[in-house]
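Table S2 (continued). Query chain:
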Amino acid sequence: MHRATRELPTSGYALVVDGHTNAEFKTREGAREGAEDLKRRFPMLQIRVYDAEAKRSDDIVLAT
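Corresponding output:
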């Protein structure tokens, strides 16, 4: 059985958690805040913010 996968958005920003698209945001700031909150609660996860316009993603790393 295969899991349904969500595709990356064509506009806005998305959180990518351990390789899976999790949530979409209209603004970079909203996506960044959501990603940092999630990373604080679950530091073991790999979290990226995907920018649909630039077609690139940035890792979220919190300062210790």
